[in-house]
Structures are given as structure tokens and as C-alpha cells.
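Need residues for this backbone.
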């Protein structure tokens, strides 16, 4: 196996106190990257993730940040750059959804879903690109969803969520064209049904069985599966991969 070495790199991962974001941050730390991580309200969870990163021999800058607030995202990036001098890798992970049919979506529902899944991603890229471009190297990895590709959620109906995650894919592809000349790759990872931190999503057994029946591997995915994909796209082995939706 070719080892992935991110020694000397600095990564900012949003939504990193739990789930996919936490696991992605730990994967990057294991490979040697320093981390800028955040929590929204659960400081204890953020501190626990930071402690795990330090235990892996790396460093972590923990910031309270609600990604619905673009000023807070800019402050998170600034805190990381102040401490570590740069940000090489951005993992846009924090997000959220509302499971409602289209005719029941309020303006507030729509604004929330697009704020945390699209505007937050735009704001984070805006915060890191000005210092990433002169470095001539960078990785931007946006967590989208299979719903953003197919419009179909495994459970319920989520047109606002699917629309937002589809926007993430298109935005990332366009940004990949713009950023390639600066040595920066931009890709999306589109998880399907993921069980976070070994905890099964609480749904009726028959719904879970029906969903698994659609999955080629015959199992629900884990946050480790997504974290490994993020690590690969952040590595030198993915230097010629950009504009891809994985």
C-alpha cells in the first residue's frame, strides 16, 4: 500500500465534531495534516474531536461556527490561517436537510437548506482561495449526496435537500475549471445511506432492509467509508482528478 503523507498540510473541515466530518478530520490527521475544526453548539464533542487529533500526534484549532453564518465561516478560516499560516485542504461537510414534499416547503425551509448546504460552501471557498492560489496547491472537497445526483432520497421526500446537493455538484465542477490553473482540485463526494459512528439510523426495519436491497455491497455505508474517500481526494494520488462527483 502506498502511504498517504499529508505532513505539512493544513485542512479545514466543517461540521467536524461528529459523524462524517469528524471521521474525515481524523483520517487527515492520521496522514499528518493539522486541522481546523468546528462545532455549532456541542463544545464537548468538538473538544473530544480535537483531543483525538492531538492524540494522533497532530494539532487542532477548534472554533465555534454555525455555517449558516457566512461571517462565522470567514472567522473560522482566519483563525486557522492565523495559527498555522495557511489552509491547503478544505472539506465542506457541514449541512442539513428538511424532509418535506415540495408543496409543503416554506421559504424558511428553503433558505435553511440552501444556506447550510450551498451558501456555506461558497463562503468557505471564498475564505480560503485567496491564500490557496498563491501556494500553487490545494484541495477542495465538497460533501454532496446521491440525492444530488439522482434526486432520490433513501427515506422520505427531500426535494429541497436534493436540489441543494445537486447545486453543490454543479458549483464544484465549475470551480474545478476555474481553479485548475492554480494547482487546486475541486471534487465532490456523494454518500448514500451512511450510519454515523457505528450507530444505526433509527428507521423501521423493513425500510432499512428495502434500502439495503438496493445497495450493491449489501450493506449500509459508514462514516469511515466516506472519510477514506476524502483522504484519497486530499492526497497527492488524486492530483489529476478534478471536477469529479464520487
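Answer:
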Amino acid at each position: 500500500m502506498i502511504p498517504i503523507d499529508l505532513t505539512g498540510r493544513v485542512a479545514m473541515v466543517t461540521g467536524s465534531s461528529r459523524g462524517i466530518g469528524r471521521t474525515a478530520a481524523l483520517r487527515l490527521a492520521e496522514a499528518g495534516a493539522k486541522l481546523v475544526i468546528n462545532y455549532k453548539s456541542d463544545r464537548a464533542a468538538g473538544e473530544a474531536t480535537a483531543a483525538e487529533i492531538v492524540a494522533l500526534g497532530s494539532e487542532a484549532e477548534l472554533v465555534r461556527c454555525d455555517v449558516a453564518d457566512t461571517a462565522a465561516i470567514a472567522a473560522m478560516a482566519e483563525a486557522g490561517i492565523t495559527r498555522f499560516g495557511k489552509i491547503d485542504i478544505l472539506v465542506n461537510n457541514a449541512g442539513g436537510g428538511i424532509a418535506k414534499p415540495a408543496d409543503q416547503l416554506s421559504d424558511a425551509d428553503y433558505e435553511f437548506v440552501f444556506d447550510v448546504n450551498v451558501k456555506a460552501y461558497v463562503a468557505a471557498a471564498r475564505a480560503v482561495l485567496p491564500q490557496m492560489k498563491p501556494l500553487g496547491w490545494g484541495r477542495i472537497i465538497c460533501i454532496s449526496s446521491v440525492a444530488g445526483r439522482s434526486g432520490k432520497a433513501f427515506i422520505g421526500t427531500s426535494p429541497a435537500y436534493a436540489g441543494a446537493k445537486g447545486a453543490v455538484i454543479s458549483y464544484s465542477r465549475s470551480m474545478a475549471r476555474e481553479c485548475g490553473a492554480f494547482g487546486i482540485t475541486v471534487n465532490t463526494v456523494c454518500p448514500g445511506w451512511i450510519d454515523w459512528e457505528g450507530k444505526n439510523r433509527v428507521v423501521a426495519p423493513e425500510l432499512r432492509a428495502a434500502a439495503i436491497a438496493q445497495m450493491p455491497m449489501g450493506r449500509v455505508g459508514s462514516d469511515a467509508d466516506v472519510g477514506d474517500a476524502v483522504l484519497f481526494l486530499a492526497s497527492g494520488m488524486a492530483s489529476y482528478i478534478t471536477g469529479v462527483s464520487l
